[in-house]
Specification:
CATH architecture of chain A: Orthogonal Bundle
Order of helices and strands of chain A: HHHHEEHHHHHHHHHHH
Shape of chain A: globular
Largest interface: A-B, 45 and 45 residues
Number of helices of chain A: 15
Radius of gyration of chain A: 18 Å
CATH superfamily of chain A: Farnesyl Diphosphate Synthase
Strand content of chain A: under 5%
Oligomer: homodimer
Structural class of chain A: mainly alpha
Strand order of the largest sheet of chain A: 1-2
Chain lengths: 293, 293
């Protein structure tokens, strides 16, 4: 019942991205093409959806959160481009297509990533809906902190440092709280802020976001073992190859499935005080558990 | 007479950078060390100085512009780290020290660059002096646009695309207007905005910044031919090696010197309406002409 509604929001994000990315014909055209290559036509848009939906759940108009949803998708895309570079994870496939540097070369991919981070910030400053200046300022602070050396980038560093090392479950959680958790948490909190959610709503959204982020990472680890590479759109078995610490690696596949389910339950539980208003976020959480890519 | 005064402002920027960078003991410590390695203890601080001085010339307190001055120095440092990477200019020396990736490896250098861009933005949002929210918002818009795919990053792309090709003087000017000009222009305009400069002052500062940016790039090209590598802190002759288009390459060394001087004159001329208030910027312009590194 919710899937078509989620698809409608996803389509809005695709349209928004096309609007907020630099025109492919504006110079330097090849850079803008490279930026669009990694942002458009693919991706689950989980982060953008969280921003739009949280805004509506908080009582705001989804349209007001569209610039923020597009900004976070651009920042997510930049992090993927840089992660895939040969000096990082050295991946050839992403979302079923050759990675950015395989198409445009390393230098252009590096710069396309830099430009997407910059463009995401630019949207948060230049495309603020009327009357929401304060909310966007607050949301931008949230977004930048989540993307910083003590957020997503810091998580990358910890993740690389842990390759080949033996770490425990708490250490693994700490890595993922930064590496993927911070941006997912920011996605939902930005939406809540732009929707002027009261503190009770912000609290519910934050707990939901934190649990969802953890569940998302656990399923990510599981997909690397269990998924069909054709559906996943990238090679599987890479974590083992690179000796990455993962949930299934630490606790086993079965227990990892149980943990993911428990986190999704915790996420949905946090929405109980919001009653019917939270239903669409419950539906979104279910798609994380059921994801096959 | 002005040199000691310029040094005082430069010292303020060094102190500010130490304050506004993440603590080297905060995790991930190695990332924060890598960020500091490329930002601290070196550099002319031209962009930061322009921001501080423009603020005072516009009638503001230098202290109010310090966060912006530090932000632009971090963004400049990020661009240098990424430029030096093997997939870009592949340089081993910068500011007399091994480049970031030579010390910390490519992955860490990439992430340190990403984190410095993010940190620069973060300061512009989280460290705004009281009562200057609007001015900082405007300054951040200026900074982000200057750093974007249609600013500094775009200039990098055009510069790489021009390697080995024959281009004319107007095309070269267009590359540099983006590659180095945009950030220098933003540096001075941010200071003017934070100092609440009236439009007559902003106009003078903007013309000054544009001319200074061009002169800076011409002297940069000349230093690559004429400088002592030990003083310059990096290898010389790299432009020729990489078949980069340069001013001396296009118009000859003598004419390039004349052009640099003419741009510095144009920069100083723009300050005439500001009378004595502009004197410190005239002094700064002179240091660009006299630079040996």
């Amino acid at each position: 019942m919710f899937q078509p509604e989620l698809q409608v929001y996803k389509d809005k994000i695709e349209e928004g991205l096309d609007t907020y990315l630099p025109s492919p014909s504006a110079p330097p055209a090849l850079l803008h093409e490279a930026m669009r290559y990694s942002v458009c036509g693919g991706g689950k848009r989980l982060r953008g959806l969280l921003t739009l939906l949280a805004c509506t759940v908080a009582g705001g108009e989804w349209r007001n959160a569209l610039p923020a949803a597009c900004a976070i998708e651009m920042i997510h895309a930049y992090s993927l481009i840089h992660d895939d570079l040969p000096c990082m994870d050295d991946d050839d496939l992403r979302r079923g297509k050759p990675t950015n540097h395989r198409v445009y070369g390393e230098a252009m991919a590096l710069l396309a990533g830099d430009a997407l981070l910059t463009q995401g910030i630019k949207i948060m400053i230049n495309s603020i809906p009327a009357g929401l200046e304060c909310e966007y300022h607050q949301a931008l602070a949230e977004l930048v902190t989540a993307s910083s050396s003590q957020g997503m980038i810091g998580g990358q560093v910890l993740d690389l440092a842990a390759e080949g090392k033996s770490i425990n479950l708490n250490e693994l959680k700490a890595i993922h709280r930064w590496k993927t958790g911070a941006l997912i948490r920011a996605a939902i909190r930005m939406g809540g802020m732009i929707g002027r959610g009261e503190s009770r709503v912000m609290q519910a959204l934050t707990t939901y976001g934190e649990a969802l982020g953890l569940a998302f990472q656990i399923t990510d680890d599981l997909l690397d073992i269990e998924a069909d590479p054709a559906v996943l759109g990238k090679k599987t078995g890479r974590d083992l190859e690179k000796k990455k610490a993962t949930y299934p690696g630490l606790v086993g596949v079965e227990e990892a499935h149980r943990l993911a389910k428990a986190e999704i339950n915790r996420a949905c539980q946090a929405l109980v005080p919001l009653a019917e208003r939270g239903a669409i976020l419950v539906a979104l959480a279910q798609t994380v558990l059921d994801r096959n890519h």
